[in-house]
Amino acid sequence: MMRALWTAGSGMKAQQFNVDVISNNLANVNTTGYKKERAEFKDLLYETMSRAYVLDSSGKPVNLQVGHGTAVNATVRNFESGNVDKTDSPLDFAIEGEGFFTILGSDSVIRYTRDGSFKISVTEDGMRKLTTSDGYSVLDDTEQEIVFDSDVDITSLIVDSQGQISYKNAEGETVAMGQNMGLVHFPNKYALEAVGKNLFERNSATGEPVQASQDTTGKSTISQYYLEASNVSVVDEMVKLIVAQRAYEVSSKAIQQSDDMLQIANNLKR
């Protein structure tokens, strides 16, 4: 019965974590470029009371084992594309494919995002550069900041599907800036670490980033005047929430029943 208490307790802790993950998904249902997560679990140590063996016709073909509950194993992010919404801003970009925009953080660490709702920030020397909503610089395919001269009309900015940046001058002519927006792929994007503010960091498990234009295994393109919505389905998450709540309740019932059985055993001497 003590085993049952600890086993059911592990189930309650696991389902509480599951609810935390689902709640975070629901909270970010309107976050641009957000990718939903799911919790994965593993069973714990087993106690083997009798092993299977076959010595003759009377041998036992099955084991007698009892487990010790469950634990959270990992959280896996679903990078499936969300719906693409049309906007009226020339600084809004959506990625079609598995690519990520390249961002320079305030600590000079390069990070990555699917959120293409960019802005214009004015530097101390009066230049204008492309940034995120938090003021982090958007980088090109050579990891340089994308800076606009004073004569560039931002409303006439043109970014083609391959990320090449150009604009229309006063005469209506298209002028190439000679920069391409940085768009990268990862050998293992599922290992990216979310650090908040719609940003991801790479690590040794992700592999080195590869420019999307040089990746032969997949192709990503950019759509200007569009934004990628969150890929969270409210209906799916609510169903998962109900299932997690019921599993939590069942584990709590198991603890109550184990406690009742212990109480009965303790009362036998009376």
TrEMBL record:
Coiled-coil residue windows: none
Residue span, Flagellar basal-body/hook protein C-terminal domain: 224-268
GO cellular component: bacterial-type flagellum basal body, distal rod
Domain Flagellar hook protein FlgE/F/G-like D1 span(s) in chain numbering: 94-167
Alphabetic keyword roster: Bacterial flagellum, Cell projection, Cilium, Flagellum
Keyword Metal-binding: no
Pfam families: Flg_bb_rod (PF00460), Flg_bbr_C (PF06429), LlgE_F_G_D1 (PF22692)
Domain Flagellar basal body rod protein N-terminal intervals: 7-35
Keyword Transit peptide: no
InterPro entries: Flag_bb_rod_N, Flagellar_basal_body_rod_CS, Flagellar_FlgE/F/G, Flg_bb/hook_C_dom, FlgE/F/G-like, FlgG_G_neg, LlgE_F_G-like_D1
Localization of this protein: Bacterial flagellum basal body
Biological process per Gene Ontology, one example term: bacterial-type flagellum-dependent swarming motility
Quaternary structure and partners: The basal body constitutes a major portion of the flagellar organelle and consists of four rings (L,P,S, and M) mounted on a central rod. The rod consists of about 26 subunits of FlgG in the distal portion, and FlgB, FlgC and FlgF are thought to build up the proximal portion of the rod with about 6 subunits each.
Family membership noted in the UniProt record: Belongs to the flagella basal body rod proteins family.
NCBIfam families xrefs: FlgEFG_subfam (TIGR03506), flgG_G_neg (TIGR02488)
Protein name as it appears in the record: Flagellar basal-body rod protein FlgG
